[in-house]
């Protein structure tokens, strides 16, 4: 919705309506006729604006321009529309459903502490990449693995036991479906985060990520970090 365009149309509509009203009151029909011609060129756009401002959830109650109405009514209707347009954003904000916000400082410190400096500087993709690198470093330190990123996640978080292999497994009964679902979730989420987030940030010259998008990606890495921190180091015997 182009508010500036709408405001310009309404300003001209009110101006012409005022001139017509004054010309009629002063009984100067020639001037009123000339202004009527100008006004008619705006009618289609004006009615479109009125229809837009009448849309739910809150109707402005604006009537279409009707040539049979007195000019003073056009002035009043146009001024009403101007007022609605002025307060449109404020009313929309007031009626917006309250939603929670994500506090970056509450993300897992493995990820956020590494990304924070880049975020302050406005380098969001670099912050995401650095957060992913920090996650890798913490997992490597915990497990002793020399693998990195997606390969590391594929190996360490796998449910499959392999003699002599190190695994990072979540606590719980490994024979239960709940444990298998959680471990499978960690395994797949971690691989996806490295493949779809870390690798994109590392290998793209310009990701085009907005701050909101980058924050959401950082939240994915934070989730992986929380689950990874909860895991236990297990050396498989078979």
From TrEMBL:
Conserved hypothetical protein CHP02391 domain mapped to chain residues: 106-227
Organism the protein comes from: Nocardioides plantarum
Xref: Pfam families: Hypoth_Ymh
Upper classification of the organism: Bacteria, Bacillati, Actinomycetota, Actinomycetes, Propionibacteriales
Highest taxon of the lineage: Bacteria
InterPro entries hit by this protein: CHP02391
Protein name: TIGR02391 family protein
């Amino acid at each position: 919705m182009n508010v500036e365009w709408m405001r310009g149309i309404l300003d001209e509509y009110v101006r012409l309506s005022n001139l017509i009203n004054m010309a009629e009151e002063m009984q100067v029909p020639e001037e009123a006729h000339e202004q009527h011609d100008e006004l008619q060129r705006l009618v289609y756009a004006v009615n479109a604006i009125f229809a837009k401002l009448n849309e739910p959830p809150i109707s402005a109650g604006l009537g279409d321009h009707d040539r049979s109405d007195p000019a003073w009514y056009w002035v009043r209707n146009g001024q009403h529309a101007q007022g609605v347009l002025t307060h449109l954003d404020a009313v929309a904000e007031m009626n917006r459903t309250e939603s929670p916000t994500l506090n970056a400082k509450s993300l897992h410190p493995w990820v956020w502490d590494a990304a924070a400096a880049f975020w302050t500087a406005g380098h969001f993709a670099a912050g995401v990449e650095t957060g992913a690198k920090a996650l890798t470093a913490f997992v490597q330190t915990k497990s002793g693995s020399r693998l990195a990123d997606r390969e590391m996640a594929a190996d360490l978080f796998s449910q499959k036991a392999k003699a002599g292999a190190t695994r990072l497994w979540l606590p719980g009964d490994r024979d239960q479906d709940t444990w298998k679902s959680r471990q499978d979730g960690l395994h797949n989420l971690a691989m996806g985060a490295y493949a779809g987030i870390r690798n994109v940030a590392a290998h793209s010259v310009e990701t085009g990520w907005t701050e909101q998008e980058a924050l959401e990606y950082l939240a994915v890495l934070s989730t992986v970090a929380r689950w990874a921190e909860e895991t236990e180091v297990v050396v498989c015997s078979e």
